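Lab manual, section 2.4: Encoding a predicted structure.

Procedure: take the sequence of the chain (168 residues), apply the prediction step described in section 2.3, and record the output as structure tokens. A sample record is shown.
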Amino acid sequence: MTYKFLISTFVIAWFYTPVIAAQEKQHLVTYQAMTTEVALKAAQATLDFCREKGYQVSVATVDRGGNVQVLLRDRFAGPHTPDTAIGKAWTAVSFRTNTTELTDLVAAGEIPPGLRSIPGAIVIGGGVKVEAAGSIIGGIGVSGAPGGEADEECANAGLEAIQELIEF
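Recorded output:
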């Protein structure tokens, strides 16, 4: 009797172990993130593009949580540009949209102007989200070019430089 009980317990446990393991995994979250090397490549490509245009800028890349991964400041970029670049990248990730689009929505009255008063939010063009397979994996922020559109053009060059690396 004990032998049959042990065998049946083993068989039941063997069949249900994957189910139990799957249930345990439901309590964990997995996600894709840029490596430091990819974030650095994006930042460097952004800075290089800005230099070709004659702009002295700061570039920040952040992870999907808005944490700074890379910060580059060109020699003659203004002292305010590092914090502004970080804020733009953070804003793009936080609001899941490029900051130029946010600026346009605020100007059109579609988003309350109070958005600008959220701590850390920089609603000026130059912050772009880094997206792969429909998920935001980071952001790039640029500050120092003559206007938000030029900042965003530089950030898009950095995004383009890593596009093949982040497709999954």
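Check your result against the sample. The beta strands are 58-63, 68-73, 127-132, 135-143.
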